[in-house]
Amino acid sequence: MSLRILDRREMMKIIDLQQCDAEEYVKRDKNVLFHNDRFKTRIIVLEPGKSIPKCTMESHIIFVVIAGEVTIHKNGEFERLKANQMLVSEPADFSMETDIGARILGVQIKV
What we know:
The protein is an all-beta fold. It has a single domain (about 10-110), classed as Jelly Rolls (Sandwich). It has strands spanning about 30-35, 40-45, 50-55, 60-75, 75-80, 85-90, 90-95, 100-110. The radius of gyration is 13 Å and the shape is globular.
């Protein structure tokens, strides 16, 4: 299943988060499932041993781990999340890494 940005005529769409294709981090804009001026959703897939470098998020964030396990660093603190766990946060500096691989739904909500 390839990803594409939904337009306003498609405000309801069912997406199988296990079946979505996902590009590597450097091509992350291709992984956006939906976005508008208030929020953005994207699928994040990290292969075993991979990481995402620190970035400053100016929006509220929700990360839902769909499969695998990931360590998420936030402003120097970290939490390890497993499948079916979720992290909700105010704007902050984030990075993440995984030893075994992970599939994550990321949601950014503008302040």
